[in-house]
Fold each of these.
Amino acid sequence: MKKIIVVVVLLAVLLLGVLVAVPLFFIDPLIKAGVEAAGPRVARVDIKLSSVRLSLFSGSGEVRGLVIGNPEGYKTPSAIQVGHAEVALEPRSLFSDKIVVRRVTLVSPEITFEGGPANNNLKRIMENIQAAAGGPSTAAPGEGPVKKLQIDEFTLTGGKVNVSTALLGGKALSVPLPDIQLRGLGTSSEGITGAEVMRRVFSELLGRVTSSVAGVAGKAGQQAVDAATAVGGSASLGIDEITKGVGGLLKKK
């Protein structure tokens, strides 16, 4: 009788170990595959992740090697690169209709601004996201119902913008990006869609990037004007063109 009890206990422990280990083994690649499949449907650009690590016990995790590509027609390799991001969520919420994320922190992202004030890579992606956020929240065939989200705190810190615009005469420049912090996304009972989260984050990002680029373009334009003035009146046409170009970048769109 004792041997039977021991065997039953051992089988129960083994079964418990399998039930715990299987989700832990498969959750990371499932998240990676989900992001790489759902993200492009919203932003209409390639989105890749190098790795995802998430603990179902503590809810803490990290994402490495996030790369958001550029829309067709742009030459720079990517729009956004994030080497490291930290996540903290409520583990139990993964099995509910709304996933509760306590904190998301993007560390030292690199954003590439390619184009001009009216047409640039980031604005194009933003337009794609807005179109997706305004449409029906449906999953792809075979994926099941779309889960809603709650993000208590989103932080982007230590970022920089690589500027690629004709207004700088082909000169490559990098400028620091002010930190971004958003709170209370999807805290209502119905939560928020992934597309709407992307829209809110990207809207804030685009505003900060545009402001940073306008500042550096204004300085570069003034330096070009000063240099042209120093060589005499023969450069007056170039001065006018530079001034108009920089003025157009600084206008609110």
Amino acid sequence: MPELPEVECIVRDLKEYLNGKKFTGVSFAFYNMLQGISPEAFEKEIRGEVIRDIKRKGKYILFFLSNDIILEVHLRMTGRLHYYPGPVDPQKYTGAVFYFESGDELHYQDVRKFGTFRLYAKQMLYKSKPCLLGLDPLAENFTLNSFSEMLKKNPGRMIKSFLLDQKYIAGMGNIYTDETLFRAGINPGRKVGSLSLKEINRLFESLLSTLKEGINCRGTSISDYRDIWGQEGEFQKRLKVYRREGSNCLRCGGAIRRKVVAGRGTYYCPVCQPL
């Protein structure tokens, strides 16, 4: 599943190429991504409207349209958005094609068909799923103090479980959580209340630096993720622990292990991240 860095890269690229452009229509090959609206009603709402802005909240992509309607997109497991500067024939797993007055096209592809599209009025944004999420790590209000306060309220939780909980931190997923914890030298099975102030500070800095490095590397392409041009990211070449079970730790030389933490497959170094 695309995590915060991947979705951030997609949004930055979409803003560069689609801001200010007008929809002329949309065609659907499958409809299960539409939430509470028919294909005909969906097209009626967006046809003739201009994209005023594109933002990200957690793993959600939000298109702000000129009629004060918001198009919310969640790529889920295998969804992709591909931008084309001109007409292109849809591929096998293309579920929707958005057409623009400029001739550009935006194709939504999804092998597993888990992605979702939703439309709602801008004044209802505060009730939407993206706005019910926790703090976004790239937002100004995500500070060491706000992070520490959240940790204080959850002393009994395992640190990995906490970092993955979208009610507290929006956008974190399995890859960047494992990498963050390794870089901070913290075992994913430790309880939040066991962390010292020094470890909390190290974890905060590690979280931000890992996400920013992922963005600078254009995301992680282990399986399905591609950017809007269909290109892979580069962060998979810098992974220290994720999916490296049995390989030597790049820091200490010990063996990377895998265990299930918070219901998720978790990779860590038992030497660098002692329990």
Amino acid sequence: MAKQKQQEIGFATAAIHVGSEPDSLTGAVGPAIVPTSTYAQDELGKPRQGYEYARVTNPTRDRLQECLAALEGGITSRVFASGMAAVTALCTMMKRGDHLVCTNNVYGGVPRLFNQILVNYDLEFSYVDTSNAGLVEKAIRKNTRYVYVETPTNPLMTISDLEAIAKICRRKGVELIVDNTFMSPYFQRPLEFGAHMVLHSTTKFLNGHSDGLGGVIVCSTKEQADKLAFIQKTAGAIMSPFECWLVLRGVKTLAVRMEQHNRNGMKVAQFLSGHRKVKRVFYPGLPDHAQYDLAKRQMGGYGSMITFETGSLANAKKLLKRVGAVCTLAESLGGVETLISHPASMTHAAIGEKGRKEIGLTDGMVRISVGIEDVEDIIADLDQALNAI
């Protein structure tokens, strides 16, 4: 469904082999973890293969950066200690007085960073419904440096037209940054629609096993890559070798995991949409989704992220108290296990009641990251919990 460039090798092949080539010395098929803080030099000013200090470069990190760039179709990538560290690194490329236009219902940690920390450094931020490309164009100013789009959004699953926004950004001389965490490069590759950089929390689907923390920015130009490498070196919020190895290991099964996430997600969404205790379901794979046609054009699948309305905080609490046989009440998403959460008090607590009301996020909404368990077991757990309402 998505508009995709022809690759020399297939996606699953790239996920398994790019950056994970057998070790040149031993032939080991599994990439080695290089947990060193520094490197021996043969003589002054001549480090071996360019490796001097682990904050600057690391072989395991290099492998991961090569792999993730290949999956998104970028020239290279830069990985960081967390998704928010990646967002922070992006913003350190802004200068005093620069302006950023942001999707208005992104993950709550992003506006928390923008509004409570970065505004103190004379950076400016404004928020619009980026599902309306016209609003994006109106929000761009002379001092706008970036347009930051999350699509689908967390947690309302609103979709933005990346090709339309990219055309606006290029005409205005502004760079488009896309958070592609919910879809992964398997189902959506924003660079192919004209985005300039792509961001992920690698903690989520790329890692896939809820056991590692990280973030990545995939670059389309050498200038971006060089600036971000300098930020890695200077600010130091890098991903550790062990975390890099975890993502390399996890991404090898990304294709098969995303297929199962997608199958399960659709079945759970259909179940929820037909349940008498559910008021509304937010899932781009359902024909009643406002951007269903756009989703079919822009995405190769609909993923496993679903938000649904229970009607009240009391109902949400009853539901969340009863789940647990399969669905785990926890923050985060994208793991092989099904995770369920309450956005208003968890991921979006930081934006406050007024902020949640402005974007239409209610206290009765529940978000589910559908895992790859047997879908009948996921549905049974949700059904018994919903019947407690």
Amino acid sequence: MSDLHALNEAINKKAGRKLFPSIAVGLTLLGLVIASLAFQRVLFLPLAIAAIIRGVWELGQALDRANIEISVPTISFCAVAIMTSAWIKDVTGLAVATAISIPFLLISGLPKGHHNFVKNATATVFATIYLPFLAGFLIVLAKPDDGLARVMTFVIVVGCNDTFGYIFGVLLGKHKLAPAISPKKTWEGLIGSLIFSILGGGLMLSLLFEKHWLVGAAIGVAAVFTATCGDLIESAIKRDLDLKDMGVILPGHGGMLDRLDSVLLSAPIIWAILTLVG
């Protein structure tokens, strides 16, 4: 038992997060996603909206440290509208709702006056695109009759990126990928992500969609690129704001944004590839 504890502590120190709580939280979130899609797909919508609203709140708290103000209630209202529109009218609804929300959000900032208007307005638009708009592609993925298969493909390739990047980084990581932004990320971790995301994508496309495994491999490669960049983008935000984590709601992960970082940028590209291949 003491050996297991020592191993866990060594992994925690090298990886920068607690292993077992991280696994437990990840499996719980995965279970909620599968249960909602398997039981009644529309339940995935409020689940995703709740996660994004929490993310908006965390981003608002973080930006406040730099004296940047975004209206969390107003952006949350728009998030509900954007993601619900994505469920009702797919990508068309997502695009139109976002296009309407942005001027609405800019106008809603006028009563506060001109002081810091550009800074706050820019952050508001960024928050709207980064969170509800990108997350809207998850909603579009989940809506069709084969929504469970589509989302599970998404979960597998992104999960392979995160999990095997983590494992390879802990066990073999020596060469830093982006030390100025994310000191824990290594090239060895990236290679692990790439190998297993390709395998995971190829397997899912072959089994669930009867497509050539190379299509799945393409999804795997794209997911590694977008998920890694998404993680680095969020790390850059945290370093700029002098934060370790965006929150503490998810043990072993930090905040909701710390869990969504790789998901948000991956959703549009995986939706696009699955749509192109039918």
